[in-house]
Amino acid sequence: MLTRIDHIGIACFDLDRTVEFYRATYGFEVFHTEINEEQGVREAMLKINETSDGGASYLQLLEPTREDSAVGKWLAKNGEGVHHIAFGTADVDADAGAIRDKGVRVLYDEPRTGSMGSRITFLHPKDCHGVLTELVTAADPSGQH
Ligand code: CMX
Ligand code: CO
């Protein structure tokens, strides 16, 4: 069951400058940063609020580490902006399977590693009314990152 908006993924050209914008404009601080080579991103997670399922909602600021990555290609075509949304679940395997059975393309056969040791998969944007949609199970089974 999808129980929270886990994050909104925002593509940017310069992570440090974008982090500074969110800090200076809204007062949001960086909760976590990492490089995910498999996804081709350097990212910063800004925690916005905790959620009733024991998890939290974040902004995920994404800078590509290479031009041929998903975010690199998207930035070259569209410029900066909202790249994807992510729903949180306690069981990404079950939810991805159930959604696949409804005819929506799930991009990975098995979930891969996302932010902070989470397990993630994606739904094809062409099957989701133009929205690239991620499913996330946090590393901590309670849902708290
Ligand atoms: N949102 C909406 N539509 C998108 C999109 C996005 N983020 N990315 C691509 N599309 C659309 C394109 O506009 C294009 O549409 P048209 O054919 O109408 O022009 C179509 O999908 C194909 O796009 P493409 O540029 O040819 O890109 P690919 O097919 O090579 O890749 C996708 C698209 C979704 C399969 C790829 O981006 C992907 O695998 N995404 C999942 C991984 C990811 O995004 N990782 C980064 C984030 C990591 C994290 O969140 O931790
Ligand atoms: Co994401």
UniProtKB/TrEMBL annotation:
<keyword id="KW-0413">Isomerase</keyword>
<dbReference type="InterPro" id="IPR051785">
    <property type="entry name" value="MMCE/EMCE_epimerase"/>
</dbReference>
<dbReference type="Pfam" id="PF13669">
    <property type="entry name" value="Glyoxalase_4"/>
</dbReference>
<protein>
    <submittedName>
        <fullName>Methylmalonyl-CoA epimerase</fullName>
        <ecNumber>5.1.99.1</ecNumber>
    </submittedName>
</protein>
<comment type="similarity">
    <text>Belongs to the methylmalonyl-CoA epimerase family.</text>
</comment>
<dbReference type="InterPro" id="IPR037523">
    <property type="entry name" value="VOC_core"/>
</dbReference>
<feature type="domain" description="VOC">
    <location>
        <begin position="4"/>
        <end position="138"/>
    </location>
</feature>
<dbReference type="InterPro" id="IPR017515">
    <property type="entry name" value="MeMalonyl-CoA_epimerase"/>
</dbReference>
<dbReference type="GO" id="GO:0004493">
    <property type="term" value="F:methylmalonyl-CoA epimerase activity"/>
</dbReference>
<dbReference type="InterPro" id="IPR029068">
    <property type="entry name" value="Glyas_Bleomycin-R_OHBP_Dase"/>
</dbReference>
<keyword id="KW-0479">Metal-binding</keyword>
